[in-house]
Amino acid sequence: MESLRILYKIGPGPSSSHTIGPMRASESFLSQYSKADSYAVELWGSLAATGKGHLTDYIIKKVFEDAGRSIDVEFKMDYVHPFHPNGMLFKAYQDGQEIGREQIFSIGGGNLAHEGESSTAEVSTYPYQNFAEIHQDAQEKGVELWQLAVEYEGQEILTFLRDNVWNVMKEAVHSGLAADEVLPGSLQLKRRAKKFFAKSQEQSGEVRELGELFAYGLAVSEENAAGSFIITAPTCGAAGLLPGLFYFLQKKHQFSDEEMAKALAVAGMFGIVIKKNASVSGAEAGCQAEIGSAASMAAAGATYLLKGTIAQQEYAAEIGMEHHLGLTCDPVDGLVQIPCIERNAVGARRAYDAAYYALFAEDGHRVSFDTVVATMWETGLNLRPEYRETSQGGLAKAFLRGS
């Protein structure tokens, strides 16, 4: 299983698969063929179908422009490579002759892979195959999940999670709450986080807290939609859910940043299990792989903060995934806005509910986290292509038909 440093990436929105992955691929290819005088790239499948709305062509061109180069981008929506729907083919030329090419795939969370590989970035940091093994190891050692992270990644992992991850998440909340401009793109969608927060302050009790929780989730998700820098948790499209809930909990209970780092480590242990045994890519398994995974992670981390046991953390994570099973990835006009932004805010509340449900269930649970991850993966593979981030079905199709 991969390092938490790979799970939690800092990068530009609105899509880890469509911006961070292609950005990293562009940087890698450019470094290999820095002497070429021209470049081209073909975008395949989902990268082509929703690339414009997800700013894929923009981020690729920007990498080359920043290096004083240019690149031709071709969208080939009709070709889907059997290895993964987010495929790219880079080509380099010298004096009109091709001198190099690279076929590479953006497999979710900003990770890259070549055909037949799980991830070009993945280095086995943890010796586990599933969550059952993680839980057993923690029980035998009498430690919390965050302590396993420290065992395998060193004490500095908590510093990374506090300073490099949590601080960026908090800044995204603050920036999102302060902004009120219209989001970029064809929908001309108005931001809501600032207004939600202001309205929440006119309320009291549970209604006030609910409004604040929604506002925090919206704030980060809207920052992502605007192309700002956020943290993949585990993706850009689901980047508002976990920070929204965690910020709410820190404010409500006055948790220290050190405790938030430990909660991020706990959440991350569930995230790396999902990435190993299923997917966090909407193009590969639908939005259940993005919002469902984020809800699992957030629910587990919240349960830790609320003093739940590891068994209760697992139950909360299982609930978070189970009740998003079958969720389609259907961004309207290829933008990570409708329904994505609302799903982050509502998903934050669902993760909160999952945490408390697990805390009330003292008699345990029957469905394991590993089982629900396997089910999500099977469900994702059985989704028709139009429900996997192509904008050709679901709400994306119905919205355009209705308009």
Describe the structure.
This is L-serine ammonia-lyase. It holds the Pfam family SDH_alpha. This protein is an alpha+beta fold. It folds into two domains: 4-113, 60s Ribosomal Protein L30, Chain: A, CATH 3.30.1330; 131-402, Orthogonal Bundle (2-methylcitrate dehydratase PrpD), CATH 1.10.4100. It contains 17 helices and seven strands. The chain has helices at residues 4-7, 16-32, 45-49, 56-66, 131-141, 145-153, 156-178, 193-200, 205-225, 241-253, 257-277, 282-285, 291-305, 310-322, 340-360, 369-382, 394-402; strands spanning 10-12, 38-44, 72-76, 87-94, 97-108, 111-113, 229-231. The strands form two sheets. A five-stranded mixed beta sheet has the order 3-2-4-5-6. Strands 1-7 form a two-stranded antiparallel ribbon. A hairpin with a 2-residue loop joins strand 4 and strand 5 (97-108). Helix 2 (16-32) packs parallel to helix 4 and helix 14 (310-322) runs antiparallel to helix 15. The longest helix is centred in the middle third of the chain and has 23 residues, at 156-178.
Characteristics:
single chain, 403 residues, alpha+beta, 60s Ribosomal Protein L30, Chain: A, 2-methylcitrate dehydratase PrpD, two-stranded antiparallel sheet, globular, metal ion binding, metal-binding
What secondary-structure arrangement, pairings included, does this model have?
Blueprint lengths: L3 H4 L2 E3 L3 H17 L5 E7 H5 L6 H11 L5 E5 L10 E8 L2 E12 L2 E3 L17 H11 L3 H9 L2 H23 L14 H8 L4 H21 L3 E3 L9 H13 L3 H21 L4 H4 L5 H15 L4 H13 L17 H21 L8 H14 L11 H9 L1
Parallel strand pairs: 2-3
Antiparallel strand pairs: 1-7, 2-4, 4-5, 5-6
